[in-house]
Amino acid sequence: MLKLKHSNFNIECGTDEAGRGCLAGPVTAAAVILKPNFKNELLNDSKQISEKKRDLLRPIIEDEALCFGFAHVFQEDIDKINILNASILAMHKSIEALSKTPEFIIVDGNKFKPFNNIPFETIIKGDGKYLSIAAASVLAKTYRDAYMNKIHEEFPMYNWKQNKGYPTKEHREAIKKYGITKYHRKSFRLLQEQLKLEL
């Protein structure tokens, strides 16, 4: 089982994002503060568990966490401030959405910016080490997937219900055939040959 705490602070929050490598849709982050007695054998990095298990875990996390928050940062902002800054902004917004102020923040990955002078630590592969980051990764992924399923109805030809906006062969083929939508990230390399010039 993953570890419950990283620091000696009582109120420690874990945060993570989903959708960083996508061609369309928002980058979504979640922040979770778990109760001191929280246990869950199933909980792991959201990439390591099936969609079915993530959907099963989401209400358990929401029910049993001390508090949680999530936030989307949409494609227009991603194009303006770049994906790294958008990912950090989404994490900041999700921490802001918490009903309790954390005393310490643990972040999945190696990039973060200070938030309200709260001490923090970045942890590479943290979603496979700490329960709160794993819980945040599950919430970020399930909230983002739900959003992608919703906009799939508007543009079914890209099959976002299946690929969630990631650069699959099918998604790229659909961009080639139909062009891009308002949900696509214009600053991303949407097609392999986008940057080649025919000279």
UniProtKB/TrEMBL annotation:
Belongs to the RNase HII family. Its EC number is 3.1.26.4. It comes from Olleya aquimaris. Transmembrane segments: none annotated. InterPro entries: RNase_HII, RNase_HII/HIII, RNase_HII/HIII_dom, RNaseH-like_sf, RNaseH_sf. It is found in: Cytoplasm. The keyword Ion transport does not apply. This is Ribonuclease HII. Keywords: Cytoplasm, Endonuclease, Hydrolase, Manganese, Metal-binding, Nuclease. CDD domains: RNase_HII_bacteria_HII_like. HAMAP family: RNase_HII_B (MF_00052_B). SUPFAM superfamilies: Ribonuclease H-like. Residues 10-199 form the RNase H type-2 domain. It catalyses: Endonucleolytic cleavage to 5'-phosphomonoester. Pfam families: RNase_HII. GO terms for cellular component: cytoplasm; ribonuclease H2 complex. The keyword Kinase does not apply. GO terms for biological process: DNA replication, removal of RNA primer; mismatch repair. The gene is rnhB. Manganese or magnesium. Binds 1 divalent metal ion per monomer in the absence of substrate. May bind a second metal ion after substrate binding.
